[in-house]
Amino acid sequence: MAESVVLDPVDLHILRLLQNDARMTYRDLAAEVGVAPSTCLDRVARLRRSGVILGHQLRVDPAKLGRGLQALLSVQVRPHRRDLIGPFVERVRALPESRSLFHLTGPDDYLVHVTVADTADLQRLVLDEFTSRPEVARVETRLIFQQWDCGPLLPPA
Q1: Predicted confidence (pLDDT) at residue 157 exceeds the cutoff of 90
Q2: d(CA 68, CA 7)
Q3: What is the pLDDT of residues 31-65, one digit of tens each?
Q4: Residue 2 — pLDDT band, cuts 50, 70, 90?
Q5: CA nearest 146: which of 62, 21, 46?
Q6: For residues 12 and 20, is the Cβ–Cβ distance under 8 A?
Q7: What Pfam family does this protein match (any one) (predicted)?
Q8: This model's pTM is above 0.90
């Protein structure tokens, strides 16, 4: 398990603000937090070096790209052996429909978040890319009606 980084209230305020708007300028961020811009820049750099801030992401609306249907696929891999799961994981990650992949405990081994054009495209994906693979024992599909972001991520109180 990764070690936690000790963060003070200024660090937490910076993280809260950047998670709500990662494009905020250092000058605006510093003014909001109540520190000098150079101090703010140093703190953000330290948060990056320590691995607290992992990077920046561009969010895209899948529906605007012709992928208006989202689903979660629960997948069982049998036998669940390292020599089978490595190639399986790499194959799923390479699929243009895959948004995220989780390795789980419990009856399902993986949960895959996918975006597709429609139900026919989802059926094609499940049949051609998942159930056709010899290591895939079962796939259960759940459609996503709506998704909300929660946030920001901060350490436990």
Answers
A1: no
A2: 40
A3: 999 999 999 999 999 999 999 999 888 889 999 99
A4: low
A5: 62
A6: no
A7: AsnC_trans_reg
A8: no
What backbone phi and psi angles, to 5 degrees, belong to 5?
-105, 135
Residues of the chain with CATH 1.10.10.10: 9-49
pLDDT band at 1 (very low <50, low <70, confident <90, very high): low
Identify whether the C-beta of residue 67 lies closer than 8 Å to the C-beta of residue 115.
yes
CA 157 to chain centre: 23
Looking up tokens 């990077």, which residue turns up?
A: 55
Residue whose tokens read 């036998």: 79
The rounded distance, in Å, linking the Cα atoms of 63 and 133 is 28
Mean pLDDT, residues 85-110: 97
Where does 9-49 sit in CATH, by number? 1.10.10.10
As annotated, the residues of the chain forming the CATH 3.30.70.920 domain(s) are: 62-144
Q: Report domain 62-144's class.
A: alpha beta
